[in-house]
Amino acid sequence: MSDVLVVAEHRRGELRDVSYELLTAGKELADATDGELHAAVISGPVEEYADKLDRPGVDQIHAVENGEEFNHGIYTQVAAQLANAVDAQYILAGNTVNGLDFAPALAERLGLPLVTDAVDIETDDGLSVVRELYGGKTEGTVDIDSERALLTIRPGEWPEADGTGDAAIEPFEADIDESAVRSTVTGFEEVRTGDVDISDADVLVSVGRGIEDEENIELIEELADAIGATVSASRPIVDNGWLPPDRQVGQSGKKVSPDIYIAIGISGAVQHVAGMKGSETIIAINDDPSAPIYDIADYGIVDDLFDVVPALTEQFGE
Amino acid sequence: MKILVTVTEVAIADDEFEINDTSIDETYLTFDLNEWDTYAIEEAVQLQETEDEIEVVTATVGPERVEETIRTALAKGADRAVRIWDESLEGETMIDPSRKAQLLAGVVEDEQPDLVLSGVQSGDVALGATGVALAEQVGFEWGAVVNQLDLDGDTARVHRELEGGVEELTEIELPAVLTIQTGINEPRYASLRGIRQAQSKPLDVRSPADLGVELEAASLELTDLVVPESESDTDLFEGAPEETAAQLAELLEEKGVGA
Ligand SMILES: Cc1cc2nc3c(=O)[nH]c(=O)nc-3n(C[C@H](O)[C@H](O)[C@H](O)COP(=O)(O)OP(=O)(O)OC[C@H]3O[C@@H](n4cnc5c(N)ncnc54)[C@H](O)[C@@H]3O)c2cc1C
Ligand SMILES: Nc1ncnc2c1ncn2[C@@H]1O[C@H](COP(=O)(O)O)[C@@H](O)[C@H]1O
What we know:
- The structure holds two protein chains of two kinds.
- Chain A is an alpha/beta fold.
- Helices cover 27% and strands 28% of the residues of chain A.
- Chain A has eight helices and 18 strands.
- In chain A, 56% of the residues are buried.
- The mean pLDDT of chain A is 96.
- Chain B is α/β, with parallel strands linked by helices.
- In chain B, helix 2 crosses helix 5 and helix 3 (97-111) packs across helix 4 (130-138).
- Chain B is built from six helices and 15 strands.
- Chain B is globular, with a radius of gyration of 21 Å.
- In chain B, a hairpin with a 2-residue loop joins strand 9 and strand 10 (155-161).
- In chain B, the strands form three sheets. Chain B has a nine-stranded mixed β-sheet with strand order 11-10-9-12-8-1-6-7-13, with helices on both faces. In chain B, strands 2-5 form a two-stranded antiparallel sheet.
- The chains are: A alpha/beta, B alpha/beta.
- The structure holds flavin-adenine dinucleotide (FAD) and adenosine monophosphate.
- Adenosine monophosphate (AMP) binds next to helix 1, strand 6, helix 3, strand 8 and helix 4 of chain B.
């Protein structure tokens, strides 16, 4: 009982990046426990996926054929059976929308403690996990008082495993109770396409909840006009209907990497940062010096946006 | 039909704060209804407005302090509230989601709702785990990160919001727990009348024993809390707004912006 099991993630014919990051995190854990690293890939073209997951350090890959796409009813059953079959000490999944749709149920089913959204894992003295608390303003260390555990890891925190390995790839026959599969995925829908593609812009002026009111968006538009930039936004602005969905930057919106990204009244939540951290120069205007946006900003003005933004627009006036 | 909405209070840290042991000193915290839960309440109240005979009950694990927040949920239209607390949870900054789910499961067993709505995450600890853990404990079906919901008999037709602007269309058998994502609706503000009425709506306090729950021991312990070291050295422009704006304008012009 010292092995590590990671559950790969895929969607619509592609393995997602977090799968390769899970292999890296899993390998670190397996080295620490002197155990083997197992990867599970469930549903879809599993043989093709298994070949791709065969990266150095992976000992065994369990390929489980069953339908095409993620279904939590299948995933929880298969992962529970595999965890028992390989006697896994630690199980890792991605802290993604689908990861959060099956990991908590799997933890309950196996009676394991669960810590989500790990950004670091320490094994010096039992297992502990570093994760954010209070909206990214602080980082906590969570000690896990248990031999075994289930963790989800934050995407983008571990490097992707790369190269070719020599894992044993084996099919795994899971025993599925179909009556326990009580949800059906009937399709997918692409959303949020409009006439402006913010991912094409060289300069984005991005507005967040700090703007307070719909009518104040005008201030941002005036600045964008003055400097020839495109307006984008964080999620609450779109949730409120103040700007259309195609302007949303982040995990569930668009990924952008402009030359210049000016974040105005945006705190820098992980799901926002996931969409803009690739920007070349990040500038923050936020009156809270402890806002996590300052962890990634190159330049900043810690002041009231209602004073700074009009003054900035004026600079480009004539 | 009965809809149970799990409702939690979140702690929001001031711009400047101090850490005491493993939590932020309470003088630097503001407490509020969790953003995701306001959407869950709104969804339940809207269902209640369109269909006959739906009762909306909220469930909260929290100390007496949270009753003010619970009243906010009642003011937005929930019919009554249940609060559960166990002394052993006192002082835990991050309560093990499995233990929270255990207490909420006690309420589910007691109330027998057809549908449970929870939030995708609580804004402060952001475990994103309580709703699905609860579903598994009570043997309900579930769906995480729901941004569209239509009830059709014993089936919930939902959209689950995946990453990158893709939604998954899923049919979920009731009874079920759905974790609600922001943007699914437009949460209302509580009306003055709602606020007044909330004062007289039932808010029952139950102990774990009342609900027949034997709380398992915590297996998670927050042992350290720090302000993370900044990964980038942010160049801060200082001075009055006119000065900082001028410095930033200069930088932008250097980079060829607005020229
Ligand atoms: C599954 C999931 C997916 C998500 N997807 C996305 C996504 O794609 N994109 C996204 O953006 N979010 C997403 N979120 C939401 C995310 O967690 C945050 O809630 C959101 O990014 C916060 O937006 P914000 O920074 O505008 O608001 P807040 O976090 O409220 O920050 C507002 C900021 O404005 C500052 N401010 C206030 N007043 C002023 C002023 N007068 N002058 C200057 N500064 C001021 C404050 O200091 C604060 O830092 C997602 C969440 C989940 C759970
Ligand atoms: N103490 C609590 N009492 C009631 N519901 C809670 C509590 N904590 C979390 N929840 C519910 O679970 C959701 C997800 O929270 P979390 O798993 O803590 O991120 C929240 O949006 C609430 O609906």
